[in-house]
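Folding follows sequence. Below is one example:
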Amino acid sequence: MKSMRIELRYTSAAIPPLHEGICESSHIDREFIVGGQSVDGVETITSFVYGEPDAYESLLCDLESVLEYDITPSDDGFFLYLRRELGPEGISLLNALAQETVVVVPPIEIRSDRTVRLTVVGHPSALTTVVEGVPDGMGLDIRWVSQEITVTGAAVSDRQAAALQAAWDVGFYEIPREGGIEAVAAELECAVSTASELVRRGEANAVERVLDSGP
């Protein structure tokens, strides 16, 4: 068995409306699908979304394909239960992933840069079929391949990455320190408490990724 981390990239013409709304919204960072299934063209998923519930709900209300949803707010975002009808593109992607010996390992990361990242595990020949079966309108990059069954570590969100970049730019990590968390907040145009939270969570996730024994 092998593990493979892939990044799927939509063209502007092929991106699903809900994903496009995530990309265009300044109030939604990304979504992590942690479980789901598809039956007779209807997809049911549970996910955690880093962003504002009202902004996401406004996207759902505009889509005829949405059959049912439930949102539960949390500290960093909200939990989502969603049932929706899949279009031809979604069905084609599921067909590409639905190989007999392939398992999609959650979470599936829906990013605000028109990409989707996920890890698949299976026989090498079946993973090759997944790569070759990606539907039109999508590109595929292989981020890593492992001879072992493994998954990625914690992901740094876009907002956390922006906070870490701002901290770097203002000299937060210089020795001695040139700029404090107030300078980071000014760079991000947010409250000091928000900047501090983003930097701390970003650092924690980045350190976990570095210490992870995976690829």
